[in-house]
Amino acid sequence: MKSITSFLPAETVQLGMSLEEIGVKEIAWDYETVVKVIGIMQEEQRFVLGGDVYKTVSGKAEITCDSWYANKNEMTIEESLARAKKFIEAYHQKQGDGYLYTLVIG
Fold this sequence. Notes:
By secondary structure, the protein is of the alpha+beta class. The chain has three helices and six strands; from the N terminus they run H-E-E-H-E-E-H-E-E. The chain has a single domain, classed as 2-Layer Sandwich (Ribulose 1,5 Bisphosphate Carboxylase/Oxygenase). It has helices at 10-14, 31-43, 77-95, and strands spanning 17-18, 27-28, 48-57, 60-69, 99-101, 104-105. Helix 2 runs antiparallel to helix 3 (77-95). The radius of gyration is 13 Å and the shape is globular.
């Protein structure tokens, strides 16, 4: 399975925060950037299986234990993208800035 970063422009990848420092081999993005990443995943027709939310504390990411998922057998690519965007927008509206989001593609 290809990494999400293989579908993204280098400058978009660089806008994210590597989570390797906390033992996670993923990139997390702030609200504005992750919405753009979802747009790119839509152009690439990539299914978003889900994602996790991290809070930034003193420049470091901490897991919030908040996440969402999409069942590939029960929804379309468009529905998975809509679910991801809806979750992230609602989370951002409720919690505000200071959070990062990962996307898992399948």
